[in-house]
Amino acid sequence: MAAVDLGSNSFHMVIARVNDGALQLLHREKQKVQLAEGLNDDLVLSEEAIERGLQVLAQFADTLQPFAPNAVRVIATYTLRRARNAATFLRRAKVVFPFPIEVISGQEEARFIYQGVAHFEHYSAKRLVIDIGGGSTEFAIGEGLQPLRLSSRNMGCVSYGQSHFAQGKISPRRFERAILQAEQELEPIVSSFRNAGWQQAVGTSGTVKTIKDVIAGLGWNSNSLRLNDLTALKRHVLQFQHASELDLSGLTDDRKLLLCPGLAILIGAFNMLQIDEMVYVDAALREGVLYEMSDRLQHHDIREHTISSMMRRYSVDDAQTQRVQQTAHILFQQVQQAWQLTDDDGLLLSFACRVFEIGLHINSSGIQKHSAYILLNANLPGFNQEQQQLLACLVRFHRRKIRADEIPIFSLYQLPQVIHLLVLLRLAVLLNQKRRDDFVPEFVATASSQHLELTMPAEWLTQQSVLSADLQLEQKALKKIAFRLDCPGLVEVSTL
Questions:
Q1: Which H helix or E strand runs over 14?
Q2: Residue 380 CA: distances (Å) to CA of 147, 354, 377, 484
Q3: Fewest beta carbons less than 10 Å away: which of 61, 78, 139, 385?
Q4: What residues contact 107, with CB distance under 8 A and at least 6 apart?
Q5: Is residue 137 within 8 Å of 269, Cβ to Cβ?
Q6: Which residues contact 263 (CB under 8 A, 6 or more apart)?
Q7: Are strands 146-153 and 444-448 parallel, antiparallel or unpaired?
Q8: Tens digits of residue pLDDT in 57-72
Q9: Cβ(137)–Cβ(156) below 8 Å
Q10: Alpha carbon distance 310, 392 (integer Å)
């Protein structure tokens, strides 16, 4: 299996296998792309940056040619998370790269990073993990394998290089401004993180590794990082006026422009979080993704835990969700082949069945809107941005009118696929509106393209005047999105 990380500075690919229950890394590949450099003040990604990214993806595609689609997971972070024209990049990427690209939230990125560190190097007590990327810096506190605090801050070595050390220029004033901005960026999370506490601070990924290697090369400290080491390094580099002049052991040419902004961010983090000492661990996002892929192979999907936690938090009626889930499952099995739906589509439908009523926590009126709002804005570990959007979309339109213009445009999902899942959820909810275990009879669903025929016992159907009226309304609602629902034996009932 393989994990691909589309970072703001570099694109990385890691290939691994599970051997005797342990993850064995077989191959690593890194290509400098500097995607974040192409992000302007209006958050539009330049054509040059897009082309650089596509060229690297084409190279990766060649390496990954023998891999099955479910054996590769591709994660995009800060720059594609922020870019207003990210959809353009993703659409063009499909031409040269056959694997789906998942854009993840900052918190999800922090969770993956923590998992990578936690699985790579065991530590039973609480630890703080910091990963300075090209466009953002992720912070996580966890204990064992369990993350407890997660945060992503909009500060990275590429973006800070552009804003504070433009063209590689170095000066005391530039350093102080960069450190101050990093401290200001950290202010909102300082109290929460300090209160959580930790026994070990860990730095990971390229920026921290470079700073550690440079300090070791100067002969100061080869085992860990301390604030006095960082400030001493700052004084040392201030002897130079330009990054190109830096000739330091452990500093590669491609890292020269990133050293000062990365050092400023790390000093700001040490100051604000009052870090005494930091060790480096050679595992992060990509390893976290691989370990989660390994867990999914063993049917330990973190999304299950996320949904269960949300149901408990919002006191969802578990009996009703089971009814709706069961009906949706039967419907899904009967139409899966005709509509070419995947098992993961079925899993997302199941999740929607379990959380469609969380909006009751706010108000029963407009429940679908409240539920969708919660899902869209909650932190949902295990879900990428589009999965979260799709879940919210299904729940938003699980009843009443469907506003086609409000259905998002997805990269990972086609519109017919979204419509099909939505139809199944709506029918499962509608058929279980009486909230009784013994209400829904056996039925047969047959499907083709934009059509579903739902056959139920004729005698039973004639006795359900309310349901018949609701099914007629449902037929009209689905017509608005060019979908036809047929129910043989449905008695015409006035819906006025």
A1: strand 10-19
A2: 13, 14, 9, 34
A3: 61
A4: 150, 151, 152, 379, 381
A5: yes
A6: 211, 230, 233, 234, 237
A7: unpaired
A8: 999 999 999 998 889 9
A9: yes
A10: 13
At 287, which amino acid appears?
E
Fold of 2-104: Nucleotidyltransferase; domain 5 (3.30.420)
> What's the chain's length in residues?
496
What is the CATH class of 301-486?
A: mainly alpha
What does each C-alpha distance from 490 to 157, 252, 323, 460 come to in angstroms? Answer: 64, 73, 23, 10
One-letter amino acid identity for 284?
Answer: A
Which CATH architecture does the domain made up of 107-287 adopt?
Answer: 2-Layer Sandwich (3.30)
Phi, psi of 174 (to 5 degrees): -60, -40
Residues of the chain with CATH 3.30.420.40: 2-104
CB 440 within 8 A of CB 432: yes
Q: How confident is the model at residue 495 (pLDDT cuts 50, 70, 90)?
A: very low
- List the structure tokens of 392: 């919210």
Q: Give residue for tokens 């890194």.
A: 30
Q: Per the confidence metrics, is the pTM higher than 0.70?
A: yes
For 436, other C-beta atoms within 10 Å of its C-beta total 11
| Tokens describing residue 325 | 């889930």
pLDDT digits over 301-321, tens only? 788 889 999 999 999 999 999
The neighbouring-strand residues paired with 151 are 139
Give the full edge-to-edge strand order of the sheet including 200-204: 146-153, 137-143, 126-132, 200-204, 278-281
